[in-house]
UniProtKB/TrEMBL annotation, chain A:
Gene: Dvir\GJ24482
The Glycosyl transferase family 28 C-terminal domain, residue ranges: 6-166
Gene Ontology cellular-component annotations: endoplasmic reticulum
Name of a matching Pfam family: Glyco_tran_28_C
Localisation per UniProt entry: Endoplasmic reticulum
GO molecular function ontology, one term from the record: N-acetylglucosaminyldiphosphodolichol N-acetylglucosaminyltransferase activity
One annotated GO biological process: dolichol-linked oligosaccharide biosynthetic process
Name of this protein: UDP-N-acetylglucosamine transferase subunit ALG13
Keywords tagged on the record: Endoplasmic reticulum, Glycosyltransferase, Transferase
TM spans (from-to): none
PANTHER family on file: GLYCOSYL TRANSFERASE-RELATED, N-ACETYLGLUCOSAMINYLDIPHOSPHODOLICHOL N-ACETYLGLUCOSAMINYLTRANSFERASE
TrEMBL record, chain B:
The UniProt record lists the keyword Hydrolase: no
Recorded name of the encoding gene: Dvir\GJ16486
Main location: endoplasmic reticulum
Organism encoding this protein: Drosophila virilis
UniProt-recorded name of the protein: UDP-N-acetylglucosamine transferase subunit ALG14
MF terms (GO), sorted A to Z: N-acetylglucosaminyldiphosphodolichol N-acetylglucosaminyltransferase activity
Length: 171, 195
């Protein structure tokens, strides 16, 4: 599978470990093997990558790094072949609702983060993948993003809820 | 204690109250509303809907108007926020009480047929107010309070959820772990994920 455009997003969090991991030699090598040409980093409150480092990555791996703190991300999501992000519910929904391949990376520094529960549940149902920061490079080498299930809107369940609501209101 | 004139009771003008919160919660509520307000739902279709939105939250309002273009500006009721992020503790006691007074006044004024919410902290005083006025006989006899837990809650309930589980008429969860854990609660319902 080719992952030309890789979009990394951390929302409003500070997740330096993920930004560092994504620009580590191991991950860049894995991305190079997957034919990655563009790496977009939405770094939020994490420390951005230094300019010389951005140049070095381009020269060594042929990967163009684009980074920013925040901006409307519709275009980035649409263009992405894979979305790699923190376990925020917003990131999970962006992956699912746009039918994108997704890899959620757990932030070990956040204790008692209930949003992890959601990422874990969605991973157990095969809608996306889920790993720890130090596993990103090895996972990128082996994960089969084509094997993920498409996420379908739960229209039937919603209709059952609305029926139950109508019944409750007519009591 | 409350006297509702027969005329008022029969016009069935009692609105549906929908409590909006911040970004993620509002996105979920937009989807629920699109399903709820379809023309083939006679219980809900011709009934006025009032959206309760914190007065500093223009985003939720914009989101809802984009999802349901038929909504008008007058459908939204701006209310004080009970607590802003970073607010000091003593002042948040005051603002919470103020928000509670507001919710009591609005519920008493509009006597909603249904209070529907999905998790933001703002909804807690509205559910308590509706519960209290119903106990006192001020709401239409079959007015209901319905809480949909946040889609993000897979194994544990949110704080709003824990506060409201004992009193709402229907409490909806999205995931099997919560459904199993609270299977003994008669008001808890699980239809699978709704989103």
């Amino acid at each position: 599978m080719h992952l030309n455009d890789v979009y990394v997003t951390v929302g409003t969090t500070k997740f330096d470990a993920l930004i560092n991991a994504m620009t580590s030699n191991q991950v860049l090598r894995a991305l190079q093997d997957l034919k990655c040409q563009k790496l977009v980093l939405q770094h939020g409150n994490s420390t951005p990558v230094a300019e010389p480092e951005v140049r070095r990555i381009y020269e060594k791996y042929g990967i163009q790094v684009e980074q920013y703190q925040f901006r409307p991300n519709v275009e980035d999501i649409r263009a992405a072949d894979v979305i790699i992000g923190h376990a925020g519910a917003g990131t999970c929904m962006d992956i699912l609702n746009n039918g994108k391949a997704g890899l959620i990376v757990v932030n070990d520094e956040l204790m008692d983060n209930h949003q992890l529960e959601l990422a874990r549940q969605l991973a157990s149902e095969n809608y996306l993948y889920y790993c720890r920061v130090h596993e990103v490079a090895s996972k990128l080498g082996v994960l089969d993003f084509g094997a993920l299930r498409p996420y379908e809107p739960a229209t039937k369940n919603m209709q059952m809820f609305i029926e139950a609501l109508k019944e409750l209101m007519s009591q | 204690m409350c006297r509702i004139s027969k005329a008022t009771a029969e016009t069935s003008a009692h609105p549906i109250y929908i409590i909006l919160g911040s970004g993620g919660h509002t996105a979920e509520m937009c989807k629920i509303n699109q399903a709820l307000l379809q023309p083939n739902n006679p219980q809900t279709h011709n009934r006025p809907v009032r959206y309760i939105v914190a007065n500093s939250d223009d985003t939720s309002k914009r989101q809802m108007r984009a999802a349901l273009p038929a909504t008008k500006d007058s459908d939204f009721i701006s209310v004080p926020r009970s607590r802003s992020v970073g607010q000091s503790w003593p002042s948040s006691v005051f603002t919470t009480l103020w928000a509670l007074l507001w919710s009591c006044w609005l519920i008493w004024r509009d006597r909603p047929q249904l209070v529907l919410c999905n998790g933001p902290g703002t909804c807690v005083p509205y559910c308590y107010a509706a519960y209290m006025w119903r106990l006192l006989g001020c709401l239409p006899a079959h007015s209901k309070i319905v809480f949909v837990e946040s889609y993000c809650r897979v194994e544990t309930l949110s704080l709003s959820g824990r506060l409201l589980l004992p009193l709402v008429d229907m409490f909806v969860v999205h995931w099997p772990a919560l459904a199993t854990r609270y299977a003994h609660k008669p008001n808890l319902r699980y239809f699978g994920r709704l989103l």
